[in-house]
Structures are given as structure tokens and as C-alpha cells.
Design a protein that fits this description.
Blueprint (H helix, E strand, L loop, with lengths): L30 E6 L28 H9 L28 H14 L1 H14 L5 H16 L7 H12 L2 H4 L4 H5 L17 H24 L13 H15 L8 H15 L2 H34 L2 H4 L3 E12 L15 E2 L11 E2 L19 E6 L3 E3 L6 E2 L17 E4 L11 H5 L3 E13 L1 H4 L1
Subcellular location: Membrane
GO cellular component, one term: peroxisomal membrane
Keywords: Membrane, Transmembrane, Transmembrane helix
């Protein structure tokens, strides 16, 4: 009697469709489901923002920089109030001392630019100390002075006197006379003239404008980084009660420990920590090693957290159903960008429009780059993507496409922190970083996997 040998079918196997009339009744027609494409976080690859040509302010005769800045910043409407910050019954503050006026703003801006130089001079000196720009001896002296002040905090009362003596000694005539004390000891017969403001369009004046420009940009960048945290503190998100509860618990736990903390040692550690963090060895040696060590672990943690968030949003009908994943592949090719020397490690030069005719499309539904398109290679995906799901299967409504940051289809060691897997010109030899040999020879490509969950609805299967 003949025996039947059973073959184990892999879970990833796909059933083949029969061709011709015999296959019309073989399988129930799949349902076409339209879904939007994944939305990458960054802008389109390889299209760096174009900046308008910068024209020199001195190119035009009679050019007024203050007026140009003010006119480009804001224009007052005809019905603009003269005191928008003032309210009835409140005393006049510094911010409401003068009414809102373009002439006053122009005059104050001109005065501010001419006289703000010492503020930025002090800022530069502090940055040189903290960032070790003047050498280790210069910064170490200030660290020792701060440590000495922490051990004898009463000396802080003498700081105003020390600063005044430093200002007097720093402007002593002996420093201008090359150390000649005899010439500097004679009293001045003519009183020194009053320092005049910095002339407009001089090097110092333009330097002040440049410092103001960079300070405004730094403040805006810091504001943009801090602002995403603000909604969690003003009861506009559901996380505010959680933050409040944790803060109160931390306060209660910290109150008994305050008396046990040595204040001198605590202030020494807090004061010297910025110097340690900004040391060149820390910034250029330790930070890269720590980032390399923690990058993959942070990616894994991020994936786990987002998975918990997605599971928390699932409805009861999703939990009672079977859940599966569908995948989509994003493909790009690198083309050199003039002026970009990042070696292909950034987004410059990467674009879906660089894909060659006849190779895989920008968005494909198979790892090989061809599954899901027509036999002739057509069927490019545009704004919407049509999926053929089995009867009864639907996309989870509370989720969207998410990139496979761990690159579970090939291994995390072959993907970068954004889930991109870099390959050579023929989509072979995967690597987590683009190689210089690929850039110098034929070219290089990359792809990443997007996933989205589907669930089975018995009502939709009928």
C-alpha cells in the first residue's frame, strides 16, 4: 500500500493562482483596500532647501538696515493699539514704558546695536572658558576658583569687589604703555573723552549685528526643542495628571533626603559637570562611543514603547480578532549632490526619482522590489496604495504605517537608526552604512520596510 509523504509548508509561502478559466472559481476574489502611503518624517530626499541669494547691505547707497529689518519683520496695521501689553489697573512696567511705534523701535534698535558689544564680549569669554577654547590651563584655573568658592561660600560676598578691582586693573595705563609704571603713575592733565558709540557700518557694528542674529537663532532653536514638553504641563494632554503625580511623589521622597545631601559637594559636582561634558575628549571620543553603544538599544526601546502605544489604542473588536502584519517597501537610489560631502550617510542625494527605468519602483509590496506590480513593470504607487487583502481582513483603524526600525527582516546589524538598509548598485551586500567604494564606483541604493497591522472581521467576510 502506497504511503503519502507530507511536506511542511513554510508560513511565508504564498499560494499560486491558477491561470485561465479553470482558475476563476479556485479562490474567492480578494478585496481591494485603499490606504494612504507612509509619510516619511523628513522632506523629499536629495532636495536641499534652496535659499535666496543674499545681497550685501552696502550694495545699495543709502541702505538702512534697521528699517529693512523692521519692514521685513512686521508691518503695523492702521488700527494697531499703541499699548498692546497694557491693561487697566496695572502699573506701567518696563515692557510697556513706551507706546508701540516704528520710529521708537528703529531708534532703540540703532542704540542697542551700537552699545551691546560688551554683552557679547562677555558671552564670548564665557564660551571660551566653558568650551575649553583657550586651552586646558585657562579653563582649569576657573574650575579651581569655582571649587574654592564652593568650599568657602562666604567669599561670594566679596565677588562684587573682586570684579571691580579686576575692571580697574584691566584698564590700567601700564597695560597700554607696555608695562612702564613711571609713565602711568603721572596723573592725567586732560580728562579722557567719553567713549563714543560704535559707528554704523564699522566692523564692530556689523559684528554686533551678526551676534544679535545668531543669538536670535539660538534662542529660537532652544525654544523649539523645549516647546514640545510644554503641552504636558498645562493640562492639554492626558499625560499632565501622570506628570503631576510623579512630581508630587518625587517631592515627597526628596524632602527627607534634603538634609542628608552635602551642599558643598553637590554644588561642586553640578558646577564642574558642564566643564567635563564640554571637554574635547568627552565630545569627540566618549560621545561617539556612547552613541554607537546606545543607538541600537534606544531604537529597540523606541520600538517597544510605540508598540505599547499602538496596543493601548486598539479597540475591543481588534483584541477579539486575529492580528497580522502587512508590509511595504520604500526604495531609493543615491545620486551625488554638488557641495555635499556627507558620503551618502545623510539624506542628501537620496531620492526616489533617482531610480533607474526598469528597476524596482519607489514603493513596492515585496522584498524583491517586483511583487505587487504588473508584468511589464507598471503599476507605480502614487498618493494612494491599493492592497489586495483576503476577504474579511481590514486595516486597524487606530494605526498608521510605521517604519521597521529594527529591520527584523534582515537583522538590526544591517540597518541604521531609521531602518534603512544600504546596498550596492544591484541591491546586494546589505550594510548599515553606505560604503565609500559604492559611492566611487557605480552607485548605491537603500530600502526600508514599513509595516501596518490588519485584523479579521467575520462580518466583512460574509
Amino acid at each position: 500500500m502506497a504511503t503519502i509523504d507530507y511536506v511542511e509548508i513554510p508560513a511565508s509561502a504564498t499560494r499560486l493562482q491558477l491561470c485561465g478559466a479553470a482558475g476563476k472559481d479556485d479562490l474567492r476574489p480578494a478585496v481591494k483596500v485603499v490606504t494612504s502611503l507612509p509619510q516619511p518624517e523628513s522632506a523629499p530626499r536629495g532636495t536641499p532647501p534652496t535659499s535666496a541669494a543674499v545681497q550685501s547691505p552696502t550694495a545699495k547707497p543709502g541702505f538702512n538696515l534697521q528699517q529693512a529689518l523692521l519692514s521685513a519683520t512686521f508691518q503695523l496695521p492702521a488700527n494697531a493699539p499703541s499699548a498692546p501689553r497694557a491693561t487697566k489697573g496695572t502699573p506701567k512696567l518696563l515692557s510697556t514704558r513706551d507706546p508701540l511705534s516704528i520710529p521708537i523701535t528703529t531708534a532703540n534698535f540703532r542704540r542697542f546695536v551700537a552699545k551691546v558689544g560688551p554683552v557679547f564680549w562677555l558671552q564670548d569669554r564665557l564660551e571660551e572658558i566653558v568650551m575649553w577654547r583657550r586651552g586646558w590651563k585657562y579653563t582649569t584655573v576657573w574650575m579651581c576658583a569655582y571649587t574654592f568658592l564652593c568650599y568657602y561660600p562666604r567669599l561670594a560676598l566679596l565677588l562684587p569687589v573682586v570684579f571691580l578691582l579686576g575692571a580697574i586693573l584691566g584698564t590700567h595705563p601700564a597695560l597700554r604703555n607696555g608695562g612702564d609704571l613711571s609713565a602711568s603713575s603721572q596723573p592725567a592733565k586732560v580728562p579722557p573723552p567719553t567713549p563714543s558709540p560704535v559707528p554704523e557700518w564699522s566692523m564692530d557694528w556689523l559684528g554686533n549685528v551678526q551676534a544679535i542674529q545668531n543669538l536670535m537663532g539660538a534662542f529660537s532653536d532652544a525654544h523649539d526643542k523645549v516647546y514640545p514638553v510644554v503641552p504636558h504641563l498645562n493640562h492639554t494632554t492626558p499625560y499632565t495628571p501622570v506628570v503631576f503625580t510623579l512630581t508630587v511623589a518625587a517631592l515627597i521622597l526628596a524632602m527627607p533626603l534634603v538634609a542628608l545631601i552635602p551642599l558643598r559637594a553637590a554644588f561642586i559636582i553640578l558646577g564642574l559637570a558642564p566643564f567635563v561634558l564640554t571637554h574635547p575628549f568627552t565630545m569627540y571620543t566618549l560621545y561617539p562611543l556612547l552613541r554607537e553603544w546606545a543607538a541600537r538599544r534606544l531604537v529597540t526601546l523606541h520600538v517597544r514603547v510605540m508598540k505599547l502605544v499602538d496596543n493601548d489604542r486598539l479597540e475591543d473588536k481588534h483584541w477579539r480578532s486575529e492580528l497580522r502584519d502587512v508590509e511595504l517597501w520604500e526604495n531609493e537610489r543615491w545620486a551625488g549632490v554638488s557641495g555635499a560631502d556627507d558620503g551618502g550617510s545623510g539624506d542628501a542625494g537620496w531620492n526616489k526619482s533617482n531610480l533607474r527605468p526598469g528597476e524596482r519602483k519607489a514603493w513596492t509590496r515585496g522584498r524583491d522590489g517586483w511583487s505587487g506590480v504588473s508584468d511589464d513593470g507598471s503599476g507605480d504607487v502614487s498618493s494612494n496604495l491599493t492592497f489586495s487583502l483576503s476577504p474579511g481582513w481590514l486595516f486597524v483603524e487606530t494605526e498608521d504605517w510605521r517604519p521597521d526600525l529594527e529591520a527584523s527582516w534582515i537583522g538590526p546589524e544591517c540597518a541604521d537608526q531609521d531602518g534603512w538598509v544600504y546596498t550596492d548598485d544591484v541591491w546586494m551586500n546589505p550594510s548599515s552604512v553606505p560604503k565609500d567604494t559604492w559611492k566611487q564606483t557605480s552607485g548605491m541604493t537603500r530600502r526600508r520596510r514599513w509595516v501596518r497591522r490588519i485584523y479579521f472581521d467575520p462580518a466583512a467576510a460574509r
